[in-house]
Amino acid sequence: MKQSSCKKLEQKIYSGKRISPEDALSLFSWDLIDLSEAGDMRRKLVFPKEEVGFIIDRIINFTNICEAACNFCAYHARANLIKPFELTQDEICAKINELVSAGGTQVMLQGGLHPDYTLYTYVSMVRNVKKRFPQIYLHSFSPSEIVHMANKSSLSIDETILNLKNAGLDSVPGASDLLVDRIRKKVSPRKIGKDLWCEVIYSLHRHGMKSSATMTYGMGETNEEKIEHLKAVRDVQDKTGILRAFIPWSFSPARTGLKDIEPATGIDYLKIVAIARIFLDNITYIQAGWLTEGLKLAQLALTTGANDMGGVLMEETVVKATGIETKAGIDEFIDIIKNAGKKPVLRDSGYKVLKKYKSRS
Ligand code: SF4
Question: Domains in the chain and their CATH numbers?
Answer without folding.
Answer: 20-356 (3.20.20.70)
